[in-house]
TrEMBL record:
<dbReference type="Pfam" id="PF00496">
    <property type="entry name" value="SBP_bac_5"/>
</dbReference>
<dbReference type="InterPro" id="IPR023765">
    <property type="entry name" value="SBP_5_CS"/>
</dbReference>
<protein>
    <submittedName>
        <fullName>Peptide/nickel transport system substrate-binding protein</fullName>
    </submittedName>
</protein>
<dbReference type="InterPro" id="IPR000914">
    <property type="entry name" value="SBP_5_dom"/>
</dbReference>
<feature type="domain" description="Solute-binding protein family 5">
    <location>
        <begin position="74"/>
        <end position="420"/>
    </location>
</feature>
<feature type="signal peptide">
    <location>
        <begin position="1"/>
        <end position="28"/>
    </location>
</feature>
<keyword id="KW-0732">Signal</keyword>
<dbReference type="InterPro" id="IPR030678">
    <property type="entry name" value="Peptide/Ni-bd"/>
</dbReference>
<comment type="similarity">
    <text>Belongs to the bacterial solute-binding protein 5 family.</text>
</comment>
<dbReference type="InterPro" id="IPR039424">
    <property type="entry name" value="SBP_5"/>
</dbReference>
Length: 518
């Protein structure tokens, strides 16, 4: 960016700030960020029970029973001080922190936890959690500080699922019919949580302001206000970061490479999202394994990573990328167009040759657009005619849930706990019931996920999920392409800031009560 362009950006930022806050309106000790930009954001979605992303922001004013540490290697207590699992794995008992209060002054109790979990299991409130919470048979509250979950079968992965479940107040929501809760005005007018910040104000299409919660159980935050600015696109957010108008934003690889970091520093890390080419298993063209193998071998994944992702990614050979679940000697599916052509010939692809196949994706950043063009050319070289189509995430969701697609380029969370994939790969969760959007129906894979959930020994669980990796490598329910790094930019004026590129945002302790601005 030229000096003149930077001056224009700074001026634009000043104008934008003036339009958002009148003179003297913004709290003096404020951190402003674009918390909902990028793939982990959920701009202007305020119900944490039905959202599928945006948890990083929800965690600022709601609390969860448990959360991962910042490295996402260990689950720690949040609203729960500790928990234990019975020897048979069928009972999980949570002991809650004492003295925690809702931001309206009401006491937080075990009844609020039961209320939240019952909501998530209620069919009148469709959500992404019900599949992972399905093994809960009952929720008991023997006293105000104890929650006992009784399971139909052992499921150690349940604790991982709870790292994304924001606990909501019974006293504030019980009077609202469950069927009306999804879009209730309460979520964006007067929400009450237990987090370090409490609701301040919401100006549609502009920003949300949270104010420091003086009663937060870990202590009052160092900053007085946390503001989430909305931007039309990531590029506008990065310009605001560069000008100093905001102090935090997600950044794409292209932005990291093309933006001069003068006022901010960049943070990077593995996304824990496996990017894959998905095929509609209801489409007869993709039922033959040889077709799926050929498509994967037609993609020069190493070349994509080197030339488009600047080495900021790694090849994925199964649906899992966490090292402890990826065994050696997987089939590499190395780039081999000649072998791909042979496999297609053997599978009788000639009867489909020339037919246009729509390649649907919600990734619209420059790197992804270039990747789609390269994949299109690579498929064409082996006789498969795909046409990329770029849509926004809501449109993508509507199309794939309705089965109106043939092929996709998508990304899905695959860790830290591998059971997170059960709800998107097990046959019982195909639409309209769940999120197995590719309509995968592989009974052996279903059995492996069931076995992994039931395993109560850590080593046994690792072994089972290595088998999941081997099976998906051999049978290709998805065509795994890569796991890319993700990036964020944070102002050099901000201290003690923690950011981890967690799928969907959130799920980890970032301790915003410790953040400060020089």
């Amino acid at each position: 960016m030229t000096v003149q362009a930077r001056v224009r950006a700074i001026a634009a930022g000043a104008v934008a700030a003036a339009s958002l806050f009148g003179a003297g309106e913004a709290p003096a000790n404020t951190l402003t960020g674009a918390f909902d930009t990028g793939p982990a954001g959920a701009p202007q979605q305020f119900n944490p029970l039905t959202a599928t992303a945006g948890y990083s922001w929800f965690n600022k004013y709601f609390g969860t029973l448990v959360l991962y540490n910042a490295e996402m290697t260990k689950i720690e207590g949040d609203l729960a001080s500790d928990w234990n699992v019975s020897p048979d794995g069928k009972t999980i008992t949570f002991h809650l922190r004492k003295g925690v209060k809702w931001q309206d002054g009401q006491p937080f109790t075990a009844k609020d936890v039961k209320f939240t979990l019952d909501l998530l299991k209620n069919p009148d409130l469709p959500n992404q959690f019900w599949a992972r919470l399905a093994d809960i048979q009952s929720v008991a509250v023997p006293d105000d500080n104890t929650v006992v979950l009784t399971l139909g079968k052992p499921n150690l992965a349940l604790v991982d699922a709870l790292t994304n479940v924001m606990i909501v107040p019974e006293h504030a929501l019980a009077s609202i019919p469950v069927k009306d809760l999804r879009t209730a005005a309460w979520w964006k007018t007067q929400p009450v949580g237990t987090g370090p910040f409490k609701w301040g104000k919401y100006v549609p299409d502009q920003y949300v302001e949270l104010d420091a919660n003086p009663g937060y159980y870990r202590g009052r935050p160092h900053i007085d206000a946390l503001i989430n600015r909305y931007f039309k696109d990531d590029g506008a957010a990065v310009l605001a970061l560069q000008s100093g108008d905001i102090q935090y934003s997600y950044m794409s690889l292209a932005q990291v490479r093309n933006t001069k970091a003068e006022r901010f520093r960049t943070i990077a890390g593995p996304s824990r999202v496996v990017n894959y080419v998905g095929v509609n298993f209801s489409d007869p063209r993709f039922k033959d394994l040889r077709v799926r193998q050929a498509l994967l071998m037609a993609i020069d994944r190493a070349g994509l990573i080197k030339n488009l992702y600047a080495g900021q990614a790694q090849v994925a050979n199964c649906v899992l990328t966490e090292p402890q679940y990826v065994p050696s000697n997987l089939k590499p599916y190395a780039y081999d167009p000649a072998a791909a052509k042979r496999l297609l010939d053997e599978a009788g692809w000639s009867k489909f040759a020339g037919q246009p196949i729509e390649l649907l994706t919600y990734y619209t950043d420059p790197v992804s657009r270039n990747a789609m063009a390269v994949i299109q050319a690579m498929f064409a070289a082996v006789g498969v005619n795909v046409q990329p189509r770029f849509v926004d995430a809501p449109t993508y969701g509507e199309l794939v849930r309705a089965g109106k697609f043939a092929m996709t380029f998508a990304g899905t969370t695959n860790g830290p706990d591998p059971d997170v994939l059960s709800s998107v790969l097990m046959s019982q969760y195909a639409p309209p019931r769940g999120y197995n959007l590719m309509r995968v129906n592989m009974p052996e894979l279903d059995k492996l996920f069931d076995e992994g959930r039931a395993a109560t020994d850590t080593a046994k669980r690792a072994s089972v999920y290595q088998d999941v990796c081997r099976y998906t490598n051999a049978n290709l329910p998805w065509l795994p392409v890569l796991e890319a790094n993700r990036f964020a930019g944070v102002s050099t004026q901000v201290q003690d800031f923690v950011w981890t590129p967690a799928p969907g945002g959130g799920r980890y302790m970032d301790h915003p009560e410790r953040w400060s601005v020089k």
